[in-house]
Amino acid sequence: MSKTNPTIQFLIVLIAVLGLLFFIHVALLRSSGFPPYGNMLVWSYLVNGLLAAAIFILLYVFRKKLKNSIGFLFMAGSFLKFIVFFIVFYPSYKIDGDMNKLEFAAFFVPYAICLILETVFTAKMLQKMS
């Protein structure tokens, strides 16, 4: 898989990992007696995955042109994810005045996995540029 375009590699890994994690997340919720698709779980995985894909693709496309700014662009991508969280997810989670653990996990688990994958693939990209 090393000769495959890094963006294709990233997308394959991202979809595979998020897909597997989503099914594990749903299975754990179901086995614990909680609604398996509550707390905007599907939206959270989709939005985090789409944002991670868009951010990495943009970083890859502009890697040569903005070589010295990749780190700042990466942080801007994380900032964008937080803005999306506070606009899309937070109002729904705080509607009852409290954000419980299930709501937190529904957003944070896919966010953290996407962030880890973005970090690993961006670091690999930067190493190849050196």
From TrEMBL:
Name of this chain's protein: Uncharacterized protein
Native source species: Ulvibacterium marinum
InterPro entries referenced in this protein's UniProt entry, alphabetically: DUF6168 (IPR046166)
The keyword Transmembrane is annotated on this UniProt entry: yes
Any Pfam family hit: DUF6168
Residue intervals passing through the bilayer: 7-28, 40-62, 69-92, 104-123
Keyword field: Membrane, Transmembrane, Transmembrane helix
